[in-house]
Amino acid sequence: MTRSTTPPGVTGQPPATYDGVLSRSLGVGGNVLITLSGISPASSVFVLGGAALAAYGTGVFWGFAIAGVISLLIALCYAELASRHPVAGGDYSLVSRTLGPATGVAVFFVGLVTLPLIVAIFALGVADYLGVAIGGLDPLWTAIVVTVLATATACLNIRANAWVTGAFLFVEMAALALLAVLGFVHVERPVSALLDPQAFDAATGGLAPLGIAGLVIAVTQGIFSYNGYGGAVYFAEETKNARRAVARAVLWSAAITIAAEIVPLAAILLGTGSLTDLFGSDLPVEAFLEERAGHAVTVFVLVSIALAIVNAIIAIALQSGRLLFAAARDQALPASLAAPLTRVSASAQMPWVATIVMGVLATAGCLVPLGVLLNATGSTLAFSYGFIALAAIMMRRNASPGDGYRMPWWPLPPVAALLAIATIFVVGVLDPNQWLSLGIAVGIVAAGYAYYFCYLRSRAGTHLLLLDVRDEEG
Length: 474
Fold this sequence. Notes:
By secondary structure, this protein is mostly helical. Helices cover 67% and strands 3% of the residues.
């Protein structure tokens, strides 16, 4: 790979940089389209939002509102970090260049394991939604076919992927708009009902107040549902004027996601005929659609959700390929593995080998039982967000006043985010049902640190070369 030097800084030392080899052809809008596709607000509302409605009732509004505030705080941390280090590789690139190589490698391990498994989780759910229109679909083979097709699509030029994911995204946003309209034109209760957290009580068949513990878990569900706005950083090297544009892409993605999820959920709560029936349903969002729009519209929307899931898989495949490419270019892997993983397509200007390798891992993940996949990915998000918040604090201490985007209300965003994440950890530790997931997350992070100290640290002169990429657009 080629390296260049930037103009000398105040120290007189010209820091080395990578020459850009990816297609710098995305604007803020194109980056946001792909990032939102990876989040998939519609599937979040139907799957995660539906599960939250069944478990936490009207507490979902408070939970998702608080989660929205926390997510915006974390998005501010991502934005400031990305404006200093607009390098493909997402969390790994930001953390390694701020908190140091050891923690960066731990975060790389988190992404290396979880991104392919998240693709597998999404893919295994496609048949459930397509099945309403196409009977007899085998979940496993459907997942494998979808994963292979998504990986092939991810090997196209980034602008082509922006158009493809943008078209799918339009369909899923239309589905969310339909939910909002159906709820707001059939309002059955005052807005104040949203502010009174009540959940379904199976013992009485009615509603009962939701406790603080339940509300905290609803917040964690909301944070997980909004997750993905940091994905904009994966495309930093393909975004024009990246030091400014990627920060804007992160913030726009977070704001749009929060609005696109909380508005239809509020509409459902206000517009359903019976809260008790809604919360007692196995699939609350689908039940609301059946109630207000009928079976034919419900089938159409569920097929749209299947397309939204496929869209998310394409976007996550794009991200995962860039993670592996960035780590290989930094020599975070043995040279024999790193060399082929840094290959870039001459025509599409994308890391095709790394993308295919991650696609193969995702396809293999489809063979793993769903329960194992969920446990393996369930608690890693808190670790990732915790490292990002710490990185934002450390970077501000070392940054010059005029360097890139600077978040408002400093140091509230990272400190408040860390407190929220600490609360999530405490809740997880107190809940025996989450111990396995937490243990797996701790194990992945520990494996990353062990790999660094046992292999990479002694090769510091030739491995883990943490350079930035020259932003040729400004």
